[in-house]
Specification:
The structure holds 2 protein chains of 2 kinds.
Chain A: H1 4-8, E1 15-19, H2 45-58, E2 62-66, H3 76-85, E3 89-94, H4 101-107, E4 113-118, H5 124-131, H6 135-147, E5 153-158, H7 167-177, E6 180-184, H8 191-194
Parallel strand pairs in A: 1-2, 2-3, 3-4, 4-5, 5-6
Helix pairs in contact in A: 2-3
Chain B: E1 4-8, E2 12-17, E3 20-25, E4 30-34, E5 49-50, H1 60-75, E6 79-83
Antiparallel strand pairs in B: 1-5, 1-6, 2-3, 3-4
The chains are: A alpha/beta, B alpha+beta.
Chain lengths: ~200, ~80
């Protein structure tokens, strides 16, 4: 960002991404975090809540939760609730497989959360070549639940050679579902670096 | 008719920086950098305020600047109007 105020330095980040776990129930080929099982040194619940306090004290406006799959953490809602209690906005990036109607209802209680569901192709075969079997239907189901809720929701697509031609169709799919589309750049890290080609 | 007041939009946040106030709108997201110095406390619009309300002790010129600034915040939807009652 080119901005004279930013160049002088802000007192803290405006928003930040927090990988709350590297545990994940999927093994996406492009995963920048090589998510698999949770790391042994992941923050405890107490440590995570202290961090929320610190980020609030620093004036951080928004925390974008990613991973891994954030909902794999048994205490994830507790962490999200702690953010909201302090007025910190949250955005959750999820693969959608663990989203249920009850969970969406629970998250709809306040208006401080937005949710992105990963979907890497407008066609099932394209998406599942990257994310694995069953991921397309699970993501669509999650997006339908979210679209019927007040939670601002979007499809998050990592742009790759394999799905570039489907971006217009993804845009149309998002419109039909009643959500927005966010196209993210590929980051050559983790399994993404291994599968660059 | 109820009096109109202004308050920070629920999708927005504001904090004090060295230059003044930094506004954040999660709907973009987008930022607004305001060189207000210490004229306007960050928490001023956390509660509903009368549209013409300003902090006390400001010079006439500063009041005029802030009134224009409040109009800008309303125009850009960082503040929203609502009933005070």
């Amino acid at each position: 960002m080119s901005n004279r105020f930013v160049e002088k330095g802000l007192r803290s980040p405006v928003n930040l991404t927090w990988e709350v776990t590297v545990g994940c129930n999927l093994r996406c080929r492009h995963c920048l975090s090589s998510s698999d099982t949770p790391a042994v040194d992941e923050l405890t619940t107490q440590e995570a809540l202290v961090l929320v306090d610190q980020l609030h004290g620093e004036g951080v406006f928004q925390i974008n939760f990613g991973g891994g799959e954030p909902f794999m953490r048994p205490d994830f809602l507790e962490i999200v609730d702690a953010c909201h209690a302090k007025g910190i906005m949250t955005c959750i990036s999820t693969n959608g497989t663990l989203l249920t109607a009850d969970l969406v209802k629970r998250l709809s209680r306040n208006r401080l959360v937005a949710i992105q569901v990963s979907l890497d192709g407008a066609e099932q075969a394209t998406c599942e070549a990257i994310r694995g079997a069953g991921t397309y239907a699970a993501a669509i189901e999650a997006l339908k639940l979210l679209a019927a809720s007040p939670i601002p929701s979007s499809i998050n697509t990592v742009l790759t050679a394999g799905n570039a031609a489907e971006i217009p169709a993804l845009y149309e799919l998002a419109q039909n579902l009643g959500v927005s589309l966010r196209v993210s750049r590929f980051r050559p890290s983790g399994r993404g670096a291994d599968n660059w080609e | 008719m109820a009096a109109a007041g202004v308050q920070i939009h629920p999708a927005c946040r504001v904090r004090q920086e060295g230059f003044g106030l930094l506004f954040y709108d999660s709907r973009g997201p987008r930022l607004l950098f305001a060189e207000t110095g210490t004229m306007l406390p960050a928490e001023f619009f956390a509660m509903p305020r009368g549209k013409g309300d300003l902090p006390e002790g400001l010079a006439e010129r500063q009041q005029e600047q802030l009134r224009n600034f409040v109009n800008l915040l309303l125009e850009k939807d960082f503040l929203r109007e609502q009933s005070l009652c």
